[in-house]
Amino acid sequence: MTTAPVLLSELGTDPASVLRLVAQFDAMEEQEANADAAVRFAALTAGCPVGVRWPGGTAVRYDASGRLDPIDDGAAPPVGHETVVWVERDGSGHPLDAVLLDRLRRVIGRVAARTGVSGTPHLGDPALLEVVLSAKEHREDRARAMRLLGLDELRPTCVLAASGHSPGETVHLITDVLSAPTVRSAVIGNATAIVCQGSFDMRELSDRLERLIVERFPAVVSTHTASGPWVGIGSVGSAFSASTSWHEAVRALRFASSTGFGRRVVAYERLSSLELLADLPIDRVRRNRDVARINEIASTPAGDLDVQTTEAFFVYGSLRRTAAELHVHHSTVAARLARIQAAMGWDFEDPVDRFLGTLVLMVRRISMSSAELADADLL
Known about the structure:
By secondary structure, this protein is of the alpha+beta class. Helix content is about 45%, strand content about 10%. It has 14 helices and eight strands. Strands 5-6-4-7-8 form a five-stranded mixed β-sheet, with helices on both faces. Helix 8 links the parallel strand 7 (about 230-235) and strand 8 (about 265). The two termini are about 45 Å apart.
C-alpha cells in the first residue's frame, strides 16, 4: 500500500475516526494485499508491534517502524484452533486497538479464503454499531457503517437490548435461540445492543428466549436480583429503521425483570398500552406511596422474601403452584402473602386489589431497571 497510514495517535474515539481507520483497511482489501503487508500496515498504524499467529503455529510480527521482528513468546498468545491477532503496548492500550485488530483479522480472513463476511456472532465495533443505531447520523454514514459491519441494507432487521451482565455470554445465549444468519453486537453504556437480520416471529422469539433464560438462570428467592440477563426486543423493520428498533428495545428492557419473578424477556410490540408506563417519571414512581411502601418492606431480608413471593404468586397464579416453584409449603406462601396484604391494605381475592398489586410491582420493576440502566444514557 503506497499511502502512509493515518496513525491511531492522530485519531479520536468518535465514529468519524473509526470510519477513517476502517476505510484504510478496506483499501487494503480492495488491493488484495497479502497477510504480511496487512500486519505491517497494522503495526505502522498502531505505532507498536502487531502480530498474527495461525492455528498451525506459524506467526509473523512487525514492529512500530514496519520491520519484521522476532516473536516475543511472552507477549504472543499460545497456539490454538483459531487465527489470533494482537498488539503489544507498554501501559494501557489505545481505545481503537480493538477496531484495528478486528479489521486486521478480517483482511487476513479474506486472504486465507475469499468467503465474504462471516456470520459468526461476535461483539462488534461499538462506534460503528452506534452509527447504525443512531437516528442523528446521516443516511450515507449509516449505510457505510452497515457495510463495514457486514449488514445487508435490504434484509429485515431487529435490535435487542440486554442488561449488561456478562455481555459475551449473553450474546451467545441469545444466538442459541436466534436462527438469524447475521448477528452483530456491542456493549453500549450499561446494555448490550444486538442487531439481528433474518425472519422473526416476535411472540415465538420472546417466549423461547424467556424459557431459555429461566432454565439457565432459575430465580432464587433468597437473592435480591435474578441472575442472568434480562432482554428487550425491538420491532422488525429495514436496516435503516434499526435506530427505532433500538429505542423500542431499550424501552421494553425497562419492563423486563431486574427482580426474580418478573418476565425476563419483553418484546416491545407485545406491550401494547402498557408501553405508556415507560413515560412515567421515575422520580415520581419512587415517591408513589405504594411503591415506597413496597421498597420499605423489601429493605429487610424477611420483607424481601415476602415481596418476591408476591411477585411469584402473580406469575404462577395460585398458592400451590407458587409453593411448588419456590419449594416451600403452600402455608408459607399464604403467610407471606397475608403479611403483604396487611401491610399494603390489599385483598388479593378482590380483582381490583390484585390488579393494583400487579401494577405496583410492575412500575417498581421499571424504576429499578431504569436505575440500573441510568448511566447508559440510552433513552
